Amino acid sequence: MELPFSESYKIKMVEAIRKSTRDEREVWIKEAKYNVFNLQSYQVYIDLLTDSGTGAMSDRQWSAMMLGDESYAGASSYRRLKETVRDITGFEWFLPTHQGRAAENVLFSTLVKEGDIVPGNSHFDTTKGHIEFRKAAAVDCTVDAAFDTSADHPFKGNIDLLKLEDVLSEYPPERIPFVIVTITCNSSGGQPVSMDNLRAVREMANRYGVPVVFDAARFAENAYFIKKREKLYSNRSIREIAGEMFSYADAMTMSSKKDAIVNMGGFIAFRKEEWFRKASVYNIMFEGFITYGGMSGRDMNALARGLEEGTEFEYLDTRVRQVEYLGQKLREYDIPVQTPIGGHAVFIDAGKFLPHLPREEFAAQTLVTELYLEGGVRSTEIGTLLADRDPVTRENRYPAVEYVRLAIPRRVYTNNHMNVVAAAMKNIYDRRESIIRGYTIVREAPIMRHFTIELKPAGE
Ligand SMILES: *Cc1c(COP(=O)(O)O)cnc(C)c1O
Fold first, then answer.
1. HSE-up of 426 (CA within 13 Å, CB side)?
2. CA dist., res. 212 & res. 49, Å (int)
3. N or C: lower Cβ tally within 10 Å for the chain?
């Protein structure tokens, strides 16, 4: 008999988690103003809020922390990290930052000005926030297949080249600081971008004299999908594939809390010294000196080791297969999910799950609350609340799909936990017609409202 698949690690340290009762959860979610970001961690049984900074570090990462060099300038930890980044990405110039949005803040302060246009594939919320905060506009050029959750397309993160060319030909290059490609594309369901597409975007951008930047939080998962789905690459290593991917960009921002498997950290890497020089000024102002940028030496060491582990095939195979496992379970129960299943999360199509709810009552947020009440499982809304209001008209922006995202922390939960999540979801699916009202907004922030929003049940 062929031996079955199993995880590429064993467990050395554990953390207890606590189940709660539905009665407890009803009180807690009301106190949290129906916003799961306001829940305390002890009130959550299985936490799929995000895969950001929630992974388990390895023994090698923890031991690297003990060797951290806390010198203010020129620490060996900085050098080690810079060299690892160069080995993996090919970028010679590098700035550490405390997390991904800080990298965006520094890089966009350097490159983006009022009135600019930044085309890309379903920009991440902080990316869009940093563009719109500078009175520039993000234009979504993702392929249409991304918005049809049942369409089978191996690379739903791809940029539609016709849409991109429309933008590049409509505006002069002075108004387009760069094209941004998010790999994998978080907002469309953790969907990968093909090598073919990255290459084509690069060629088109060259023709219009516009640079290319990668939002590379999950570049290793993207490389894994290229290896699995793009024939030419099936025999290449993850490192080789990542190297070619980055050869098509001029710079990258990184949230190390994702594919570099650390709890906090980020960086920017550049091909051109000129961008590095300009960005260094902002890095010193916002983050810290250019050899630490908001990170401790020990954290830079753990990050360097995390980048090495995060680009190993065996690790990625374990990781992506677990996400796939949960996705397949949900599909067996007929629950509508974005297919193929993404790299870091399963995205449930809440509009198909609760088609009878009016859009102003936020179907995805309603399902997030139901899942918490049903199983103590915390998920997140990637829908109208996250999409925010239009900066000019202040109307709600209704996205093409209302998603509930079940993001899976790296190396943290077992497939038994996934079974609990799937069963909770099935119970809700079985009684979905009894869910007749959603939620309305009581209070919201002017930008990135979903983090702090306060809600109440509609009609109350
Ligand atoms: C998480 C994330 C960011 C922002 O990074 P933080 O570390 O959370 O600040 C940017 N882009 C993408 C695609 C992300 O997933």
1. 15
2. 30
3. N
Query: Ligand 1 within 6 A of 99 CB?
Result: yes
In the numeric block, the tokens 């796939």 are attached to 324
Contacting residues for 160 by C-beta, under 8 A, at least 6 apart:
141, 142, 143, 144
Residue 312 to residue 220: CA distance in whole angstroms: 9
CATH code for the structural domain at 59-310: 3.40.640.10
Which numbered atom of ligand 1 lies nearest the CA of 266? 7
pLDDT per position as a tens digit, 122-141 = 999 899 999 999 999 999 99
Cα–Cα distances (Å) from 216 to 89, 100, 213, 222, 370, in that order, read 10, 9, 9, 9, 32
What is the chain's length?
A: 460
388: left (phi over 0), alpha (psi -120 to 50) or beta: left
- Check whether the bond before 366 is cis (ω within 30° of 0): no
Burial environment of residue 40 by CB neighbours within 10 A (0 to 12, 13 to 18, 19 or more)? exposed
Q: Give 147-197 pLDDT, tens digit per residue.
A: 999 999 999 999 999 999 999 999 999 999 999 999 999 888 899 999 999
- The CATH architecture to which 22-51+313-457 belongs is Alpha-Beta Complex (3.90)
Distances (CA, A) of 149 to 120, 140, 250, 349: 20, 17, 32, 7
- 318-327 residue pLDDT tens: 999 999 999 9
- 10 Å CB burial of residue 35 (0-12, 13-18, 19+) is buried
Ligand 1 atom closest to Cα of residue 50: 1
Q: Tokens 């999409």 correspond to what residue?
A: 387
Q: Is 194 touching ligand 1 by the criterion CB < 6 Å?
A: no
Nearest protein Cα to ligand 1, atom 3: 100
Domain boundaries, the chain: 22-51+313-457, 59-310
Nearest CA owner, ligand 1 atom 7 = 100
Cα 325 to middle of ligand 1, angstroms: 24
Q: Which residue's alpha carbon is nearest to atom 11 within ligand 1?
A: 124
The verdict on the CB of residue 100 being under 6 Å from ligand 1 is yes
Q: Angle of helix 195-207 relative to helix 238-247, nearest 10 degrees?
A: 20
Q: How far is the CA of 197 from the centre of ligand 1 (A)?
A: 22
